[in-house]
Every structure is written in structure tokens, then in C-alpha cells.
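Aim 2, interim progress. The first record below pairs a target sequence with its C-alpha cells.
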Amino acid sequence: MLPDPSAIRSIVFDLDGTLYACPQIAAEIERAAVALVAATRGVDFASGRDLLNRARRRLSEMREEDATLSQTCLALGIELPDFHRALQEGVHPERYLEYDGVLVALLDSLSEHCALYVYTNNNLALTHKILALLGIQPLFSRIYTIEFTGRPKPDKEAFFQVLDDIGGAPESFLFVGDREAVDLRVAAAQGCPTLLVRETADLLQIHKHLGLIP
């Protein structure tokens, strides 16, 4: 994963499924998207779900990889600002998330050695709320949300904007995410080290590769 761990200066984390995992929040995001599709098409909720699922399947087949919700909404003619307004109204992370002392400790120890960043398809308001609930917001040097580029991951142009804004050679970055195709593939193609995680405990792999723990 890390050909030269000593070169790492910046760690860029995805948010959902990486710094936290919550099926209830994922379900609320899906419901908000379905409700928006139904409203824009003038159909009931069940029909909206069917439209969204069929569009996502078609897009996944065309791309030969799972389509994200943002990509699917764009394919249905829904603008990203409208999608994210629906998320702000329909997603309530305060119902499910709370301070995570283990996560705080893991990230705090990393922040002593590297600058930490978040790069997510979420909007800024929802991202700030989630990070604040977990207790980790102050640990990040900068948060890159959909407002920064207006282009959802995976997107090479958006990726380079984030990379240029942080600064540094590709090998000085470590990208961490739970979806290889969405969070990591573009970074890996540009020579950035990557780490695929499935749960918070996987973040200990960063400490091991950086030589912070045996």
C-alpha cells in the first residue's frame, strides 16, 4: 500500500462508510433521493424508487461499475444543489451519531504526523454536522465537499483540484475510503497510495504503515 511511508504528508479521508458507518443515515439519504425523484416526476414514492433504481442500474451497466447516488440524480436531470437541499431537509445524523472517543484518539494521533483532510460527495452543512457529532471536526486542516468543485467523485478534474489545493507530490498523499471505484481508483491511477477500509478499526492500518505502532 505504501511504497514509502515516510513520504506521506497528507491523509485524505472519505466520510460516509469511512469515518463512520450508519445504515440509518444511508437509508435516510436514499429516502431523500427517492422523494426528490418522485416530486420532480410527479409520481408517488414507490414509483420514484423504481425510477431511481432503474436509472442507477442503467448507469452502472454503462459505466461497468456501481453508479453513485449523485451520478444517478444527475442522469435523471436533477441538479446537485437540488439534491443536496433534499438531503439537508431529509437527513438527520443527530438521531444516530454521537461522540466517538476511539475515532478521536485515532485521528488525533495521526494529526501529529500528517495533515488530515476530508473529501466527500456530501454537502458542507451535512458534513460539518456529522464531523461535529463525532467530535473530530477540529482535527481536519480542510474539508472538501461537493461545493468545492461541483463535480461528484469519482472525477479526475475534481481530484486534481483537491490535490492542487492541498499541494504536494502524489506520493505524499494517502487516500482512505470504503469504495475502491469511487474513493480510491482515480488517486491510485495518479500514483497516490490508497487504503480501502470497511470499519473504523481498519484505520489502525494507517498507524501500522506509518510506523506509529508495531
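The second target in this work package is listed in the same format:
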Amino acid sequence: MDIYQHFREEERPFIDQVLAWREDVELKYQRKLSDFLNPREQDIVKAVMGNHPDFNFGLSGGKNQAERKRAIIAPEYEIIEEDDYQLIMLEASYPAKFVTLEHPDVLGAFMSLGIRREKLGDLVVKNGTIQIITDQDISDYIRMNFTGVKRATVNFEEKPLSQMIESEETWVTKDTTVSSLRLDVLVKEIYGMSRKKAGMHIDSGHVKVNFRVVENGAFQLQEGDLISLRGQGRSKLEEIQGLTKKEKYKVSTSKLN
């Protein structure tokens, strides 16, 4: 089976990376632990690994509904335990009564410390609490160097993964028809705006598809694609159900509330 045919050309380098991990495990009989992967990258790992009898693989992000997860690829005879993912949960408090913090504020502060996004898992900023899942190798560095964000002083401490706050976000699904599967058409439909405004957002780099900025309104979406519009949240093309008699696409979309 040609694995590449199931994914876009721009995803080929990551597919090659996963194939290289698998080959390395096969040659050295040593497991591979990845950095944190976004959901699209996780899908690629699952597709590449499939049910291969010579390997065992798993994904974990520290909680059941984690979005960002680390992957382990191991020889088939090895058992993968939760501790093997080397995850740490750090928590800090801030005075929500006096300072307003949002996800981008805190994530930006991590980036300013030179920490790559790939080393960080899910981040929660809510009701005066910051929680972050991270690679245990950098947890001490975070505790020593992340001491403030905006006007808030923070002090991170390690907490059990079981205390991670679960997301209260919900996905609302609807069925609709669209003239095409172009990105500007779906952004218009999902976010309730004119096609011209949707095109302006896309041209300005405000729209991502599967965590990559796409600046081409004619970009063709596929079933399962995750869309995000800056400031207006995430959505997903859940299913392409076929064509109507008037040659329009019947689709199912969902939006995160």
C-alpha cells in the first residue's frame, strides 16, 4: 500500500520521519519516543504503523481527552506503560481577579523562553490556574525560568496527571450544502461570513488547516480536515456525504463551542 496517497504532498516529510523511526526501531531493537504530536500527526503515525506485526506502538498525552500526544514505537515484544511517555504536569496559580490571562499569552511566554512547541503537550488556562503537560526533561527548566506572564508572578509545581482539568468544550455538528470544497467556501459557511471576508482572512494568514497556515482560498478540503480561524475557534469537515441533484456537496461540519 502506498501510504502517501492518503495524505497531502506537504505532509510527506513527516510521513518519511515516521517511516525512519520505524526503520530505526527495527534495526536497533530500541524504542522511539516522539515529541508531542498534533492530531493530524497522530493520524499519520496510526496510518504508517497500522497493524504491523513486528511493532507495538501507542499514544498518550496525560489524560483521556488530550489533544497533543507523544508516540512510542517499540519492538512487538515490548510492553508500553504510561510512565514510558515521560510526561509531567506542572501547575501554577495567578490572581485572576487582577490580571486576565488567555491561552496565547501563556503559550507565548513559553516560546519566549526558547521552548519549542513540540516539547509541550496540552495547556489549560482557566480560573486563575495554569496547567501544562510537558516532557519531563524540561520540567526543571520551566520551574526555574518561567516565573511570570504579563503582570502575573507564577510558580510552577509538579502535580499528578490525574489532576489535569478536563476541557468543557463541546463540538456542535450540522449538515449543510456547499457549492465546492474550497477553503474559502467552507470558512464562509462554518463561520457565517461573506466569501469575500473569508478570503481576506485566508489571504492574511488567519486560517489554518490541520495546524498549518493556508493562504490559498482555492485550497481543496478533505474529509476529516481540521480548520481554525484566528479569534473564532476551530471547526472540522466531518463528512462528505455526496452530491445533490444540483451538483452541490452535502457535508457535515462541526464547530467547537
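The longest strand covers residues 233-243. This observation will shape the mutagenesis plan for the next reporting period.
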